[in-house]
Each structure stands twice: as structure tokens, then as C-alpha cells.
Specification:
Distance between the termini: 35 Å
Structural class: mainly alpha
Order of helices and strands: HHHHHHH
Number of domains: 1
Radius of gyration: 14 Å
Number of helices: 7
Strand content: under 5%
Largest sheet: none
Helix content: over 70%
Number of strands: 0
């Protein structure tokens, strides 16, 4: 499994957890691994990202909201929110992944799963997060 496919799986897990009142990460990851062949080589990345987003959700959401004016999390499309959470986790907590790679992959996920505005929205928020991190 490539890192791109692993990121796609991690995104789907993060998205699914948005609808799980119990936020059962282990159950979500187990389901992901059952549904995806060749996941073993990227299992560590998926575990780290999904658990990391879940553990740091409040801080990640605060970062998202700090880059938007007059928005609430409820106003953000759930797909876009999951993409942003994944990307911001990588940017803020995973120094081994270049921020440009994270940004590009987030935009690709937005193109694939989001609506017509998702690409621009995700790109704009991530650009602000990267700018703030680098300053």
C-alpha cells in the first residue's frame, strides 16, 4: 500500500469517527484494515494519524477555527473537516512529512471527495496554517 492510499484510509477513518458518538478508534481502525488489502506496510502511519487526530482533536479544531473568521465547526462540510484535521495533524505533529506534500495531498483528497468549493477552502486554510507555523 502506498502512502497516498494509506492517507486516504486515514482520512476515511477520521471522517467515520465524526459520526461515531463513542469515538471508538480501535473499532474504526479494525474495520479499515479488514476492508483494505496490503495495509500492513502502512498500518503504523494510519494508527499514528488516526489516534493522533483523535487525541489532539480539540487543539486541531482550535487551529482550524483560528484561521477562519465567523465560522463554526458545524458550518464546515464534514469531508472538508476530516481532510483539514488529517492535514493539520501531519503539519503540526509529524515533522518527517514535508508540509508541501501534506498540502498537495489534502487538496487531492478535497478534489476527490469534496464539493466544488472544497479544493479552494482546504488549500486556503492549510496555507494559513503553514504560514503561521513558519513565522
Amino acid at each position: 500500500m502506498s502512502r497516498k492510499k494509506a492517507r486516504d484510509c486515514a482520512f476515511k477513518c477520521i471522517y467515520e469517527l465524526e459520526f461515531d458518538n463513542e469515538k471508538n478508534v480501535e473499532k474504526t481502525l479494525s474495520y479499515c484494515y479488514q476492508e483494505n488489502e496490503n495495509v500492513e506496510d502502512e498500518k503504523e502511519y494510519i494508527d499514528v494519524v488516526v489516534n493522533g487526530v483523535n487525541k489532539n482533536l480539540k487543539a486541531i479544531d482550535e487551529i482550524i477555527l483560528s484561521k477562519l473568521k465567523n465560522w463554526s465547526l458545524e458550518r464546515i462540510a464534514k469531508i472538508d473537516l476530516a481532510i483539514l484535521r488529517l492535514a493539520i495533524y501531519e503539519i503540526m505533529y509529524m515533522d518527517d512529512i514535508p508540509v508541501k506534500v501534506t498540502a498537495n495531498e489534502a487538496v487531492e483528497l478535497a478534489k476527490l471527495y469534496g464539493n466544488n468549493d472544497s479544493k479552494s477552502f482546504v488549500n486556503g486554510v492549510i496555507a494559513k496554517v503553514i504560514e503561521a507555523k513558519n513565522s
